[in-house]
Amino acid sequence: MDTVVGPPAKESLLSRDVPRTVLLSVQSFVHCARHHYVLDKMKTCLKPVLGLAAAVYLLGLLLLIPIQIVAFLAHLLSFGALETKSVTDICSRWLVEATSLVPLLSVLVLRSVIRKPLYKCFVHVLREVNPEMAQSIENTPRIRHPNQKKHMRQWRQFATNYVSKTMQLLVLEFAIHVWKQLPYLGLAAEPVMHFVTMAHVLEPQRAIVFSALSFVPHAGPFVRQFVALWRASSVLGEELLEDYVSHMILHANRDSFFRRRAVTITAFVMPQLAIMKVPILGPMAMLPMAASAAYLVDLLVHKGEPIRSEGLPAAAANKLGSATGPAGPAPTLPAGNNAGVPAGQGVQMASQAGLHPRPVRADSFENASAPPWQESLNH
Fold first, then answer.
1. Per-residue pLDDT tens digits of the chain, which is 379 residues long
2. Distance CA 374, CA 144 (A)
3. To pair with 167 at 20 to 30 A between CA atoms, which of 106, 157, 210, 353?
4. CB neighbour list of residue 175: distance below 8 Å, 6 or more residues apart
5. What's the rounded Cα separation, in Å, for the pair 261 and 300?
């Protein structure tokens, strides 16, 4: 199964679709946070999630101790050239930036601890938003990496992609703070990093203007927070779509997929990541986030990410064919609070939150137009 990769459609941060995507993100998050199935899962996972969140924040406080030690050692090794207070200030400011990545670190562990509830929330809402895609994901096995053994595949992929990118963000934030301490050259630290971060979603001239805003006294802090949130959201977006990508897109095409849709994915994740920054309770937003990813998947499908079964083993392709074949009786939601409820009922529930999704047939993916809930946002 593979995505059909045509000419890359470059997305821009200044596109009029970006505010619509942000609005869709907020609406879908509110809807999923009120969804009875997601609420049940949140109650089940309340204790482990809160315990994990408290542990992560406590770890951040404990980091103040090694920071003091590092500052003292730097003072000794520099023979007094570096003051302990200045080194402590640098490390403390970096710790503040690193703390903004706590949602990423929480997700890092949550995906391992409560992976099954997250997947169930995603698929359950996807059955309401796009039943055809939900069936495809459920009936298609995960795509294995062709060069890795089964028992090592998941860990290697997880470690090399998500963990390494999160650590790179931490190192990058620290490098920026060290660079800023250099005389004269330090003034260029933030504008340069802002340009490097935003150049791929803005034209070079606009990226330069955006970076220059760092020098404006009142605008500078907002620019720094926006860029830091953008970098973190770009990492979290890949993890949020893991349940979709691992079933639908071959490894060879995943990099191009994320590059092609980077703006849409990141704009969708940003407002939800901001919610996750709420101390202690923030990580509880991970379950509604996982569920709201169903709306992001449906949006990407309508933006021209069709699904084809080439490249899959014959058995998996046959399963997909049976899942997306001629329309049969209306699919029903799984047993539980929704036993026997037609999938259309879920669409009505979504409409009450301001969203108007529609089921999309697999044979219409290639010529799909904008979904009705997106058209409703245009007015």
1. 444 444 445 677 777 888 999 999 999 999 999 999 999 988 888 887 777 767 766 766 676 666 667 667 766 776 666 565 565 665 655 555 555 555 566 666 666 677 788 889 999 999 999 999 988 888 888 776 665 555 455 555 555 555 566 666 667 666 776 777 677 777 777 788 778 777 777 777 788 888 888 778 788 778 877 887 887 788 788 888 888 888 888 878 888 888 888 889 999 998 988 887 776 667 778 889 889 999 999 998 887 764 544 444 444 444 444 444 443 343 333 343 443 344 444 444 444 444 444 443 333 333 444 454 444 444 4
2. 34
3. 210
4. none
5. 8
3 C-beta neighbours (distance < 10 Å), count: 21
Q: Is the dihedral of CA 156, 157, 159, 160 positive or negative?
A: positive
Which two structure tokens, joined as six digits, stand for 190? 């933030």
